Amino acid sequence: MINLENIRFWDITKKEFKRKDIEIEADISKFKDLNKHIDCQNFYGIPAGIDIHVHFRQPGYEHKEDIESGCKAALHGGTLAVLDMPNTNPITDSVETLLQKKRIASKQNYVKVLVAVALTGKNLSQIKVLDENCDAYKVFMAESFGNLSITSEDIESALNKLENYESIKPIIFHAEDPEILEQHKHRDNHYRQRPPEAEASGIQKVLQWAKDYSKLKFHITHLSSHLSLKILEISNIKNLTTDTCPRYLMLTKTSEMLECFKKVNPPLRDSLDSAKLLEALAKGQIEMLSSDHSPHTIQEKTDPQLCPSGMPGVQEIVLTALHLVAIHEIDWERAIEALNLFPSRLFNLEDDEWFSDSFIIVDPEKFTTISKEWVKSKSGWSPLEGKTLKGKIDYIIKNGELVARNL
Ligand SMILES: [Zn+2]
């Protein structure tokens, strides 16, 4: 038994920290030099992260990441549950491929892996049985990595069916309007090819669907622009939630990085967009954070012919929130809502055993420098490399037992 003495522990109902002592289990042979009594005077105990948007690339692209390596990165980053996206190979769009992915995921015990299936237009006849087995749906309105786009007509057929089955599974939209992307595809760089107007128009379509199918749960992921916020601001739709990613808060299109390493969908935007997104996150207009962890290898990202879109982020998400708290951009309540409470509600994880007596111990006064050595993802790099963030995730506790420590 290890005694955590005098830790500030987050009280979910009172929404404040309270000092207390906590006993946890720890395998001393695994964690060397661990004191039986840890002075937690400067530590804070908060709920672990739930990252509702990751691409762990297995099956099919295991050279970029696999479920085990992705989960290890998540765990060390203070996240204990993830939602894995379907653009693997084979695509997760059938009961067979869904169960295959769940079997692979069950071989590791680091992180709870929820699985999203793609709505593709080809699997509409299977929706009932998919709904019984999946954790969420992913809708790629436009082409991205592993082309899975679906037409508006097929989306509407799927929504009709889901409403008939009284589905409670979140439907997660990558909102970029394919027609607008088509109009801009000849333009001379990635930012201009995927302008904010494409995202805004995609969002307008999702808003209409959310109104038309008011019993279904809609979620728009990775908001990237100020324009999108303006549209959402006036919408006031109850069955719709949103998230943004650390990359849109911490980076812009002029950040000092090689162009291909910055390439992502939707693209990085301007500093005004970052500022407005942060404001929206701080006041809860954007409810959640997700990482959209989309690893590619350094070799792929340095090959100008390939240059695939996407960047890692699952290990960085909780740390980024911690940094934003430490520099007073958001408060603890919002950080905990965005990382844990709201995702937990969206996926009905509130009473999940995985999270009982699970928490992370962080120190907002320490600093973490992101380097290649720090990165656990198989991709081997981080978009925040070279940055020093305020805050450190020290211990990760699952079901009352220490499962990871960052030295
Ligand atoms: Zn994604």
* CATH topology assignment: TIM Barrel
**What's the tally of helices?**
14
Large-scale geometry: globular
Sheet with the most strands, sense and barrel status: 8 strands, parallel
Could you list the spans in which at least 5 consecutive residues all have pLDDT below 50? none
Q: How many independent structural domains?
A: 1
Overview of this protein structure:
This protein is α/β, with parallel strands linked by helices and 407 residues long. The protein has a single domain (48-351), classed as TIM Barrel (Alpha-Beta Barrel), CATH 3.20.20. Helix content is 32%, strand content 23%. The chain has helices spanning 67-76, 95-105, 127-133, 152-164, 178-184, 190-193, 196-212, 226-233, 246-250, 259-262, 271-283, 298-302, 317-326, 332-346; strands spanning 2-11, 16-24, 37-39, 44-46, 49-54, 79-84, 112-118, 136-140, 171-174, 218-223, 240-244, 288-289, 359-369, 388-398, 401-405. The chain has an 8-stranded parallel sheet. Strand 14 (388-398) and strand 15 form a beta hairpin. Helix 5 packs antiparallel against helix 7 (196-212) and helix 7 packs parallel to helix 8. The protein is globular. The two termini are 20 Å apart. The mean pLDDT is 96. The protein binds zinc ion (ZN).
